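Hello again,

I reread your note about wanting to compare the complex against the isolated chains. To keep things tidy I'm splitting this into two emails, and this first one only covers the full assembly. Below are the input lines as submitted, including protein chains and any nucleic acid or small-molecule components. They are followed by the predicted structure of everything together. The single-chain runs will come separately.
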Amino acid sequence: MTPSDPCLILGHPVWFDGDPFDDPLTALRDEPDGAVLVQGGRIAAVGPAARLRASHPRVTVIDHAGHILMAGFVDTHVHYPQTHIIASYGAQLLDWLERYTFPAEAAFADPAHARAVAAFFLDEMLANGTTSASVFCTVHPGSVDAFFTEAAARDLRVAAGKVLMDHGVPDDLRDDAQSAYDDSAALIARWHGRGRAHYAITPRFALTSSPEQLAAAGALWAAHPDVLMQTHLSENHAEIAAVAARFADLPDYLGVYEHHGLLGPGANFGHGIHLRPREIARLAESGAAIAHCPTSNLFIGSGLFDLDGLRRHGVRIGLGSDVGGGSSLSMLVTMRAAYEVAQLRGVSLHPAQAFWLATFGGATTLRMDTQIGNLRPGMEADLIALDPAATKLLAARTARANSLADLLFALMILGDERAVAGTYVRGRRVGG
Ligand code: GUN
Ligand code: ZN
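Full-complex prediction:
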């Protein structure tokens, strides 16, 4: 509860009533002269402004007239320790990790540095309208404490985990199978389910873990099946060839994770660009998810993700910024990149589908969909106000919008942080 709770937020609520990959037009719902009633940090009602004002004459009114009100964005794959190496020039995945990522992550041995970067990252995230995320920390347990401490100070529903890596990395970034297990188990005990925190067991990727460490991660997940599991999968051709050479007795890249108990509901694999049919079938059957990270795939030059094909095969998909491989924390910019990548594969991603991936779809992949991701009564009031006239160009384009879908499309193609007029966490204004 906050001083302004209960409150009535006036604007143009937009929500989902179904999966837009089944039917984009009927899934998308709105109330142009509408309002969202927030009580006790939850959405109590969504409806016509006049009706809600009449039935709640004494609540605080927050005026976002003319702004789209929707659930806050969900970033399903991002690395907070890479915030300051965003926009690093001239490398593809394996070189990029060595040249930029590992040196930056080594600095997180210092808890004060970790706290400062976590605070900066979370404030940037909120300014961009992202209210939930699944976050990679570093190999240092203190980097996880720092992150969850700053997230709790902002009351955020986030998932995060200590990166596990005991193979092929600099000495100062190496753990081992036992310490990976023990440190992660202690972090789960300390953080999972505390306030709005979710733990994610986080082996970095197949190339940076020994088989013993992958097996330890699988055993830990079996002991704590309610936590998430996140890693990287099939992002870059050199990476895939190295995985095939190192695990030659296993059928494919996903097979490495599967063999070690790291495939199932609650598994969230970053990228999944160059998958074989067997891997796609196993992802769908197991209920695992892919985090599609289009700005990263373009920026690092990894490839063009087959969103349409994987959806057709029944794979769950969310959207990720993957900063610092990704080039923006904005999920609007990420949606634009997803649209452009799909176009290059001959498919036009519908705006209802893009916004669903960036909200409820993402919440589903993180198993947070009973709490967040949609503007429906009973859900936690994590929501954003988007200004369709935030820039002169957006104003000129959205003035011509001939439908809600067209308005949302203009926002995702032309919008960025400037379009976020307000970010609310459990009904409390925190950014925008
Ligand atoms: N694969 C293993 N680690 C990473 C990482 O930090 N970023 C990306 N994009 N891919 C990875
Ligand atoms: Zn990543």
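For quick reference: The two ends are 20 Å apart (CA to CA).

B.
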